[in-house]
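Give me the fold.
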Amino acid sequence: QVQLVESGGGLVQAGGSLRLSCAASGSISSIKTMSWYRQAPGKQRELVAVIDSDAGTGYLDSVKGRFTISGDNAKNWVHLQMNSLKPEDTAVYYCNIDTYTPRKGVSAYWGQGTQVTVSS
């Protein structure tokens, strides 16, 4: 079973930066999208950033201009560069890779999550 391994979380002061990384333990093919989600205590998990197979990107409104997603479908890695961090960015961040084949439909891979804490 292929696993996604995340790294790069930690504690940072407001205004600081962090870079999250996610790599697959094996090979994943037919990638449709690679994404980062986050979940703060008491809140639902939300989509933060996504990159599709054509390198198109999308962002949560509150992170636009501050976060940048990048990825490589062939090498199965995805990064999230987070700048100008705010206390409200504090959450557990999860890496996600969705694949699609006509036979299997959509399959989702998830990382274990990495904590990001932004102090004021």
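The first strand starts at residue 4 and ends at 7.
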